[in-house]
Amino acid sequence: MGVIYIGDRNTGKTALAIELTNSQFDYVHIPNQSYENLKRLFFDEKEDKFRPTEVDPTNVYTTRSVEVEVKLPAGTRTIPADCIDTPGEVWRKSWQLDNPKQWQKVLAAVQQSEGILLVLPPYREMLLPQFQINSSDFPTQQQWCTRFQRWVDFFHYDCPKVRHIIICLNKADLFCDLEQEALQLAYHPLRSRKNWYQRNSYVSQRYFRPVQNQLVAISQLTSGVPVRCFITSIYNRSLLELPWIYLASFLAS
Fold first, then answer.
1. What is the pLDDT of residues 9-46, one digit of tens each?
2. Neighbour count for residue 8 (Cβ, 10 Å)
3. Quick one: which H or E segment has residue 147?
4. Which of 58, 104, 136, 204 could form a disulfide with 208 if both were Cys (CB 3.0 to 4.6 A apart)?
């Protein structure tokens, strides 16, 4: 039992995982994977972005198992992780009710996990105005909050063995100054500016403000399971590695 790595489609899960195979790392690395080969497979040079992974609709989801290695002061820890790619509708209640057998296949993997790492997109109102991006590709704040409540229900009803819940607001390069935030949040074994509690408070209050009550509810509904919030981006190694460094302290072998 390890970590399940999930999220809706087009949130950047694949890009985050591929970037962890980069040989230029600080503390976190997925060994025995070719970063160059994976980029060739998934990176679209013309569009200058990662392509979403293809999901076989007959199998509902695709699972890729990886071993994430994390260097800590006490030595290297290993986290077994299953990355689950699904069509976005799998996480919708209506789809689950209409496809009970297929939904059970997804739950079978999720319900054995001790840690869940959920990747979310930013909402439209967060995006910095200087970027020339199509804001319609992102949910509105209201849509984002409604979707977040469904994740609250998912954690409550469908994750009986989970011990740690990690929520990553991805594509942070679109809504904040990466270097400044990394300066505040980065992990350094002997000289970090913030401890884990302070990091979570900083990120949740700054970037998860619309769902503060739901964050509290997740912990209450899961018998006190800790919920930790992070911001992530493939363009900043410190922020990318933080969720895995945190998990390594509790779930690694």
1. 778 888 898 899 998 999 999 987 777 777 665 555 55
2. 20
3. helix 141-158
4. 204
Q: How many CA atoms lie within 13 A of 103 on its CB side?
A: 15
What pLDDT is stored for residue 83 in this prediction?
Answer: 79
pLDDT interval class at 114 (50, 70, 90): confident
Name which of 137, 153, 166, 182 is nearest 227 in CA terms.
166
Give the largest CA-CA distance in the chain: 52
CA atoms within 13 A on the CB side of 215: 19
Torsion angle in degrees (nearest 10) through CA of 118, 124, 126, 129: 140
Q: Are 17 and 28 in contact (CB under 8 A)?
A: no
d(CA 62, CA 207): 30
Q: How far apart are CA 157 and CA 161, in angstroms?
A: 11
Residue 187 near residue 238 (C-beta atoms within 8 A): yes
What is the structure's pLDDT at 44?
55
Q: What is the pTM of this model?
A: 0.89
- Residue 186: what are its φ and ψ, rounded to 5°? -55, 150
Give 245's pLDDT tier (boundaries 50, 70, 90): very high
What size, in residues, is the chain? 253
Q: What interhelical angle do 196-207 and 178-185 show, nearest 10?
A: 150
